[in-house]
Design brief:
The structure holds two protein chains of two kinds.
Chain A lengths: L1 H9 L14 H7 L1 H23 L13 H4 L6 H8 L3 H19 L1 H12 L4 H11 L6 H12 L5 H8 L14 H26 L3 H9 L4 H25 L7 H7 L5 H4 L2 H11 L3 H29 L6
Chain B lengths: L10 H32 L3 H5 L13 H8 L1 H33 L6 H13 L4 H10 L17 H14 L2 H9 L4 H12 L1 H17 L2 H6 L8 H10 L11 H46 L2
Helix pairs in contact in B: 1-13, 3-13, 4-7, 4-10, 4-12, 7-13, 10-13, 12-13
Classes of the chains: A mainly alpha, B mainly alpha.
């Protein structure tokens, strides 16, 4: 890239030359040599911080040790993949990851759509603006604070939710220590935090609906529910399909941050997911190759899922990512 | 949208819209009340917080919690560090994003499709945690401030949003006219593109800044020295790791007294830590919505 740029600098510029329809690559590069100079730094960043780590996946197939480095370490083939597949907790981690993701999707995907549909009914007054202002706000709360709010409100004796349950006669419970509740706490707190933000895109889609449709529906005497079913929901289908594809294609990519912060020794049985396991095995126990193998396995499953879901969407509807 | 309708609404419709208002009011309260409770608790006395007398408004108003927050040196250091990471990081983010997005927005930029494909690939496939960690380690960035800024120097999603914005707001004819007048590409970016792109630059800065302010993962894996820790790591240590093990509750009364002060500190800390974001939020909300919408045009 630098070679091209230097050449371009050395060459004299043709001031304001009108181009024919198809120019040679060299001429087109020379025309925008400054843009190549501008883009060089970000490209260097992408190569260094995105593509070099992809090459680093090699160590999943090697017995990585610090002294010999990535290239010098001996090859071991699929040893670490097999080790993961044969480990007694393999299915547990897969189940936990998929369980939280799919539960989250089942609740978290329709929630913003419902909020947007409801907001679309109330007119552009102060009420709508207040609901929007308030529902977007939790999006800005950091994961650490969000999890500490969850822990504080649920903590035995002093948490406000615990007090409420004591008040209605349920005995004092340590909610965060109950493995059976982990998924629900995770998913519903996510709904609390992200529904407003998620609704923005649907509200925009609804604002773009042709007003004539509503007018003719009104003339035909359609009820509000009929308008929602026949006009609003169909207008949301393209954007929701795209989001559903993206979400389904990422079900194995369950984020590390919130799960890790919500873990405690009592709920590990249901809260250990692949991303937290990769972190613990890799950075806390320094099994670099094993951890990379698990991460790579996860990425590949994800990629396959994304391609598959996109294929299904293209067959079943007209909307797809590519 | 229909409330001003001249045609009288049917009984069913009025019932339905009443249901909608009730539902949205419930949503509003469910989100607002916990936030209000935290803010009110942070201004109340420890005893009032522990005994559950705080509901909507502060009880026995004190600033003890805030005094405790400001007396803690860790929190001050964390606050300063987070400010440094947010300001330096966001500046680099915005500059890098524009540098990548603008050339990709020009139709006459040779090779832009190849670069777009390279970008999209990074969105659907990644090297994973360990290769990422080893890279930062090999670059000698571990446990330095650079580790908080360089690895996340740009977000591919923001590049795509910015590119869409440039393509839709800055017509190619304008660039070509400027070129004919002898204005080169860099001058065009500085004099024409940036001034025309203020809304997207505002959104982008906000998104990046909030991201830096709220992030803890990179600090968790890259930093070891306490004097480099951003606020979120300090928060994690105080708010989450100090959570008292329920099995240790032998004497409930003593526990409650200690827990009271500790809880108060936590509420105040949450308010202090969220303050910068909460202050700018109402001002940038409209830009923020606009940014999400531009992103959704071609997401």
């Amino acid at each position: 890239m630098t070679g091209i740029t230097e050449q371009a600098i050395a060459a004299p510029r043709l001031p304001g030359s009108k181009k024919p329809a198809r120019k040679s690559a060299y001429k087109r590069i020379r025309r925008h040599w400054q843009l190549y100079a501008v883009i060089a730094l970000p490209i260097l960043y992408l190569i260094t911080f995105k593509y070099v780590p992809m090459a680093g996946i090699l160590i999943a197939f090697k017995d990585y040790n610090v002294i010999q480095g990535i290239w010098g370490s001996p090859w071991v083939g699929f040893k670490y993949f097999n080790q993961f597949f044969e480990s007694p907790n393999f299915w547990l981690y897969i189940n936990n990851t998929l369980g939280i993701s799919l539960y989250g999707l089942a609740i978290g995907f329709p929630a913003p759509i419902l909020l947007a549909l409801a907001l679309n009914e109330v007119g552009n007054g102060l009420f709508k603006k207040s609901v929007q202002l308030v529902t977007y706000a939790p999006y800005f709360i950091s994961t650490v604070i969000m999890v500490s709010i969850i822990i504080m409100t649920l903590s035995p004796n002093v948490g406000i939710v615990s007090k409420f349950f004591q008040w209605i006669g349920v005995e004092n419970t340590n909610f965060m220590g109950m493995p059976g509740l982990f998924k629900s706490i995770y998913v519903w707190s996510d709904v609390w935090q992200y529904t407003g933000y998620g609704a923005i895109i649907y509200i925009a889609a609804l604002a773009g609906v042709n007003p004539e449709l509503y007018e003719s529906a009104k003339v035909d005497g359609a009820s509000r529910i009929q308008k929602i079913v026949n006009i609003d929901i169909p207008s949301l289908i393209p954007v929701s399909t795209i989001l559903l594809i993206l979400n389904l294609g990422n079900v194995m990519k369950l984020g590390f941050e919130k799960v890790y912060l919500m873990q405690n020794p009592l709920n590990l049985q249901t809260s250990e997911v692949i991303s937290t396991y990769v972190y613990k095995v890799g950075l806390l126990s320094s099994s670099f190759s094993f951890s990379t193998a698990i991460g790579f396995f996860n990425s590949v499953i994800n990629l396959i899922l994304l391609v598959f879901v996109n294929y299904l969407a293209r067959r079943l509807s007209s909307t797809s990512l590519w | 949208m229909f409330t001003s309708s001249k045609i009288r609404e049917s009984q069913g419709d009025r019932l339905f819209i009443f249901g909608i208002y009730a539902l949205l009011t419930a949503v509003l309260l469910v989100i607002l009340l916990p936030l209000l409770y935290i803010v009110s608790s942070s201004f109340s006395s420890p005893q009032a917080v522990v005994s559950g007398r705080v509901w909507l408004f502060p009880v026995e108003f004190t600033l003890d919690g805030y005094t405790a927050v400001f007396r803690n040196p860790q929190i001050g250091t964390g606050y300063m560090n987070s400010l440094i990471y947010a300001v330096a990081g966001t500046t680099i983010n915005v500059v890098m994003t524009v540098m990548l997005a603008y050339p990709l927005a020009r139709k006459t930029f040779y090779g832009r499709n190849v670069i777009m494909v390279l970008l999209i690939i990074t969105m659907i496939f990644e090297g994973g945690l360990i290769p990422y960690y080893l890279l930062v380690k090999n670059l000698q960035l571990l446990d330095t401030r650079w580790a908080m800024i360089l690895p996340g120097a740009l977000a591919v999603f923001q590049v795509i949003v910015a590119r869409t914005f440039f393509q839709t707001t800055i017509p190619d004819e304008l660039a070509e006219a400027a070129e004919l007048d002898g204005c080169n590409d860099i001058r065009f970016i500085l004099r024409i593109v940036l001034p025309l792109s203020k809304p997207i630059l505002a959104v982008m800065s906000l998104m990046y800044a909030v991201g830096h302010w709220n992030a803890y993962f990179d600090a968790l894996i890259f930093l070891r020295s306490a004097d480099l820790f951003p606020l979120q790591i300090v928060l994690r240590n105080i708010l989450i790791l100090n959570t008292i093990d329920p099995t240790m509750m032998s004497n409930v009364d003593i526990f409650l007294a200690q827990q009271g002060l500790k809880d108060l500190l936590k509420y105040s800390l949450i308010v202090v830590a969220s303050l910068p974001v909460l202050i700018i939020y109402p001002f940038v909300q409209k830009y923020f919505v606009k940014g999400v919408m531009i992103g959704s045009l071609k997401g």
